[in-house]
Each structure stands twice: as C-alpha cells, then as structure tokens.
Amino acid sequence: MKCRVCREPAVIDIRRHNANFCRDHFLRYCRDQVQRAIDEFEMAAPGEQLLVAVSGGKDSLAVWDLLLELGYQADGLYIGLGIGGYSDVSGEYARAFAEQRNLHLIEIDLRSEHGFDIPTASAVTRRVPCSACGLSKRHLFDGAARAGGYDAVVTGHNLDDEAAVLYGNVLRWQTDYLGRQRPTLRAANGFPRKVKPLVRLTERETAAYCILRGIDYQVEECPMAAGNKHLRYKDALNEVEAQSPGTKHDFYFRFLRQAVDRFVDADRDASTLEPCVRCGSPASGEVCSFCRLIERTADARPVPVEFLTRRKSKK
Length: 315
Fold this sequence. Notes:
Helices cover 51% and strands 12% of the residues. It has helices spanning 23-40, 58-69, 84-101, 110-114, 118-125, 129-148, 159-172, 175-178, 203-213, 229-243, 247-258, 266-269, 289-297, 305-314, and strands at 12-14, 19-21, 49-54, 73-80, 105-109, 152-154, 184-185, 193-195, 274-275, 282-283.
C-alpha cells in the first residue's frame, strides 16, 4: 500500500477517496480538510479568539491541535460532569494535553459550581442522561464564550457524528433540529457562533491523527451513553458505508447543499427570546432550562453513576 502523493509506504487508507497516505501526507490531509471546512462554512477568521469544548476524547483534542497547527488562537474549556471515574480520567487527559503544550484550559465543575452532576440530574428529571448533559454543556459553553469575549465556540463533531444526527432527525422529520444541522451556527439572540471544523473528517481519521501526533486521549466511551440512539444510528450508517464508501459524506454534504436552507434554526431566529432573570442567558421563558435544572436538583442527594448504569442494564 503506497501513499498516493509520494509513493512511500502508507499508514492509512481512506476508501471514500480511494486513497492511501503516509504519515506526513495524512497529517497534511487532515489539516487541509479542516482548513477547507473553515473556509467553506466561514467558521473563523485569522486573529479571532476561539474556545474549544474539550472532553479529553480524540475529537476535541484533535480539533484543538489542528486549529493551533493552522495558526488559529484557541483556548480550551473542560466541564467536569461528575460521571464517576470516567469524568476523572477525561479531565486528566484534557489537563495533560494543555499542560504539555502550555495552553490555556478553563475548567468548570458542575457539582461544586452549580450543585449537581449528570447522574443526579438524570435521576431527578427521569430523563436519559444525555438530555441533561447536552443541556448543561450547551449552556456552559455559551456562557464561557460570552464571559471570555471569545468569537466562537468550537466542538469536535466529526463527519460520523453529523451524519448520524442527520439520519436520526430525518427518520423523525424533526424540522427544528434539521435547521441546526449546519457546520456553522451564526451568533444571534445572545448565542455565540458555534463551529464544527472536523465535519470533513471521520472518527477513524481523527483517531489516526491523534495516534500519529502522539496525542493521548480518553478511549473509553461514556458509561451513560450505552443504548443511546445516536450510537445505533452510527452503527447503521457504518454498515452502509462499508458496502458503499462515501455514503456518509454524500448524505451529509448533499443535505447541506440541497436541503438545509429549507429549515429554520428556531433558537437563533426566535424573536421571543429574553434574558433569563437568574443568569442572563437567552431563554424562551422567564427562567432558562439550565436554571430550572439547578432548581430541580437543589435538594437531591448525589446519585452514583453506577446506580444508573446498573438500573439501565436490568431493563
């Protein structure tokens, strides 16, 4: 297997491009794909201050590293979600990455700063953990970007993530969510700009990037994500991709070219949003969803993550 650029031994094959690359040309390919996404979807401009949502996993560390390699100014934000040992290990990887490169990493701990963690919120609300997790992260990412004067929030969503989310939203024709399926969500109504520079790279490619760059990352999946529909959608698309390479790319990018403009991003086009009376974040009511979650969990005893995972396994 030879690199298609230099004909030296290749380290990875990318079937959707019918191409193989050596180490150096694969790393260049990753940088080129990220820069292409940034340019095509107007994600960031030179000199802007970017805030990368860092989880300690491969995608968030890869995108932070890639942005720095491309010359962008980027700090990191890690949120301690209180998901037992998983969160402890994730935080260690995020801190190690930042410390080794002398980067600025902001840290927020849900339990100590807001009085709850994700297992407890899930138990109190009787909703899947991913619901409280997504709500909390979005609120805290937005708040940190506003407070720090950052121009955009960067997340590590890759092509596999976006294709799987699109697949689920199309299956249920969730039109409000389809309006948000853009690599760049513009700043509006108090929300900062949000960008996804990895949309042209797959999960396998970001993992390979980290390995070749010597980036250590949290390998384990979140223990509370077991059974998540998003993972099942990924598995379904992976089966199709194995038989027809390029399917995920075509599915997602043809949607962006041909259909996304038919749908409205309700959060950013709503004229009824007002500042939350408690925290000042954009809200559809007097109090935002995050502050209501704080209120609901105020008197709850902490719930160990093991309790929820055992309960889930018995169902």
